[in-house]
Specification:
mainly alpha; 77% helix; MetI-like fold; 301 residues; 2 domains; globular
Length: 301
């Protein structure tokens, strides 16, 4: 009886936590198919009366949605919202491409660089390896605001301000330490017997890594790939400071600019949020098994 009550309690708690987490996301998605009048109706109506995809059209093609936006109401709020957004909203597709490009660069850099560095720290013994490993990991503890000015001056001296390459450099410095730590912990949990057997069979160090180590540590590699993608994809602070034009703006900067204006249409802002969530959600759903396996192994170690 006690065990049954415990299971029921855990199920109820899981449902409540799930509702707490998912309710804001469902409400946000619901507002994306409402008109601006419906969103600001009091009391709010959770079921759209005149469902429309116009908010998504507006995110990707402001000119095409302008006519429908004007027909939503004659109030000053509706008109000001329509005429404020087009110039900024039209940058969202390009900003989405910039964010995905930078995030994919981070995936490549972390998968290659962190895997090689993590393997070296875990398997290759050389003088100063442990202090170097500790310095690499602890360097990530510095808050972004503490290194903003030095990073800004370095990027400026290199002539890389307002470029995606500047973001790639900065994000590499922030993602590689944690990725190295994850790979190091994952390798420490794996016995070196397979590698030693491969070396006895005449494999070189690189052949051992690519033919023996990589297949076994695939969950750890996927974990650092997803981690680096997520961090680079949603990062706002450095992107806001180091980029200044539409050619280098990332999605968080554009959405923050839209939301900062008091007359920004809520429906369009919510639609932009839904579009922003799609790439990381898809990646997490596809690779969730590897993410959990890789992170849990490193945490236990």
């Amino acid at each position: 009886m006690h065990s049954r009550k415990r299971k029921v309690g855990l199920a109820v708690a899981a449902i409540l936590v799930g509702l707490w987490v998912l309710a804001p996301l469902v409400w946000m998605a619901d507002m994306t198919i409402m008109t601006e009048r419906e969103i600001h109706t009091r009391p709010p109506n959770p079921v759209p009366i005149n469902a429309t995809l116009n908010n998504y059209y507006y995110v990707f093609n402001a000119a095409a949605a302008l006519a429908e936006r004007q027909s939503e109401g004659e109030g000053s709020f509706a008109r000001s919202a329509v005429y404020f957004l087009p110039q900024i909203a039209t940058e969202i597709p390009r900003a989405l491409g910039n964010s995905v490009f930078v995030a994919l660069c981070m995936v490549g850099i972390n998968v290659i660089g962190a895997t090689m560095a993590g393997y070296s720290f875990a398997r290759v013994r050389f003088r100063g390896s442990w202090p170097l490993f500790r310095f690499t990991i602890t360097s990530r503890l510095l808050p972004p605001v503490a290194v903003l000015i030095p990073f800004y001056l370095i990027i400026k001296s290199l002539g890389l301000l307002d470029s995606l390459f500047a973001l790639v450099l900065i994000y590499s410095a922030y993602t590689l330490p944690i990725s190295i730590w994850i790979i190091h912990g994952y390798l420490q949990a794996l016995p070196p017997d397979l590698e030693e057997a491969a070396r006895v069979d005449g494999y070189s160090r690189l052949e051992v890594i690519f033919n023996t180590v990589f297949p076994v540590m695939r969950p750890g590699i996927v974990a650092i790939g997803i981690y680096s993608f997520m961090l680079a994809y949603v990062e706002f602070f450095f992107a806001f400071v180091l980029t200044g034009t539409a050619s280098s703006h990332t999605l968080p900067v554009i959405i923050a600019s839209i939301g900062a204006n008091p007359v920004s249409p809520t429906g369009i802002l919510m639609a932009a949020g839904v579009v922003t969530m799609l790439p990381p959600v898809i990646l997490i759903l596809v690779f969730r098994r590897y993410i959990i396996s890789g992170l849990v192994t490193s945490a236990v170690k």
